[in-house]
Specification:
The strands form 2 sheets. A 5-stranded parallel sheet has the order 2-1-3-4-7, sandwiched between helices. The protein has a two-stranded antiparallel ribbon with strand order 5-6. The chain has one domain: Rossmann fold. 28% of the residues are buried. It has 131 residues and is of the alpha/beta class. Helix content is 42%, strand content 24%. The protein is globular and about 50 Å long.
């Protein structure tokens, strides 16, 4: 039985591309375009899903809030965060925040990857998280 991954990303082209990549690697894949849609998908398919891969910067419910909800609601679920816009600079200060590092430090996710990434890089991370 193939392992099942939920991809959460508001970028349709990126999400569809990642879907095709993972499907080619023999994973079963579900998709959601934001955190709220992903919450509903998890509620309906929790028994099937082995891994959640979520973007951080999304409308309606961002990946940080979604990842926190997953941790609180399904503490055994494994989450991989990804982001291409992973830094926030506070205007007028020298402070910089890295969203991916923050998610890891808070324990919301088990691993993170910056976009763009190489195919083998994400496959290696997925395999490491699922094994």
């Amino acid at each position: 039985m193939p392992q099942t991954i939920l991809i959460v990303d508001d970028d349709d082209v990126f999400r569809d591309g990642l879907y095709c990549l993972l499907d080619d690697e023999d994973f079963q894949v579900y998709q959601a375009n934001n955190g709220r849609a992903a919450m509903q998908m998890l509620k309906e398919k929790i028994a099937e899903i082995d891994l959640v891969i979520t973007d951080i910067l999304m409308p309606q419910m961002d990946g940080i809030e979604f990842s926190r909800w997953v941790r609180d609601t399904y503490p055994d679920m494994t989450v991989l965060a990804m982001s291409g816009g992973s830094r926030l600079t506070i205007q007028g200060t020298e402070k910089h925040y890295n969203y991916l590092s923050t998610c890891l430090k808070l324990g919301y996710v088990q691993d993170a990857i910056e976009k763009p990434f190489e195919v083998q890089e994400i496959i290696k991370k997925i395999q490491g998280l699922l094994n």
